[in-house]
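Quick one before lunch.
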Amino acid sequence: MQNPRESALDVLMKVDKKEALSHIAIGETLEKYQFSDKKDRAFFTRLCQGTLERRLTIDYVINQYSKMKVNKLKPLVRALLRMGVYQILYLDQIPDSAACNECVKLAKKRGFSKLSGFVNGVLRTVSRQKENIVFPSREKDVVKYLSVSYSMPEWIVRHFLSNYSEQDTENIVRSFLEPKKTTLSWMESNGSREELVDSLKREDITVKDGELLPEAIYITHYDFLKRLSSFRQGRFIVQDESSMLAGKIADVKEGQDILDMCSAPGGKALYMADKLHGTGQVLARDLTEYKVELLEENMERTGFHNIRSQVWDARILDEDLRESMDVVLCDVPCSGLGIMGKKHDIKYNLEEKVLKELVSLQREILKTAVAYVKPGGVLIFSTCTINPKENEDNYRWLAAQPGFEPEDITSLLPEYLRIETAKEGYIQLLPGIHPCDGFFIGKLRRMK
Ligand SMILES: C[S@@+](CC[C@H](N)C(=O)[O-])C[C@H]1O[C@@H](n2cnc3c(N)ncnc32)[C@H](O)[C@@H]1O
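Model of the S-adenosylmethionine complex:
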């Protein structure tokens, strides 16, 4: 990586122009420069992620000190200013003068010499005024306050406030800005947990036990996961504990037939295949070839033989599978409001009207899902969102289907998650309140 700031600038512009999703653009650059200096790669990643996750706060600050509003600026100048302000406000180890100078140099290098003075002026003013910035007052307008302070669009803040207390809403939006955990899910079929931990430590990775499940391992100080020998040997998959919990609640037993209707890139399907210990079968489906290829890459890496992939639109009923499955997992496409800390694009790209469309798509998928569960079998419904219309309402609809009843999941949960709703068959995990992504899991059984 010749210049991490220039690489970050390219990513920020691509994302701003909606030419790529940020995690993909960042991942591609890291892959391209996988042998570059570890420090440069870490700085590049922080600069991209930090600038993106704080974008609304940064834009508010730029608008205070620039005579031209952020949305009127040329894309390159906008990206440079955002990146510069991020360094000035949030990266203590970078002197403000270095942040300004490097942005000015990049403006000139990219053919914007005439605007380099403007870039310099705005950044130097922000640097001088950074202790005096006036942010919206909580007392006057709590929505604006939470939106600007935690870089969250106002409609999402309003949406959270309509479902949660002001304090819980603040905890949720704050949590999205906290340092992200990378969590590995140990694949027990491919070696012991001790062997995995030893192998990670040998490659200088800091390892800590997860909080909710024994499979979970938190890692820090790693550089490029795909280069680790334990990754190549399929000893783990990257998976948040909330997703592992969906697999755990499915409570699979050796020899079972399992259908995962929306499975790519395969996290939960692999978790369940692992628990079958080489027996039974997971049929893992997704909508497109591209998605199924992502799943297949992970299948190949873990080497599991009891999982089969297939392109299939989950809205279409497959008569051949009617009442044939011990476990059906329906991890539906959703608004993703629970994972905005990891996927920064969601909060900026999602539109309120899409929430409704998602509920009807989910309902279409759930309608076919119920048909596949054999008498005595279970249906697991999950999402990575925190929207009652996508979660509790859909779950209630499922519970009202003839022959289905909610199943108490209390005994399958770690002690501290044994909340009241678990008895009614579901749990809503909230970021900032529980130590994982925002996630919903519900379980129902078809009566014999
Ligand atoms: C939440 S993600 C699944 C994550 C996956 N279960 C895992 O643990 O890795 C939802 C998936 O639903 C897929 N999807 C969307 N519409 C679909 C449809 N009509 N039929 C099948 N899959 C669909 C998306 O491609 C996406 O991969």
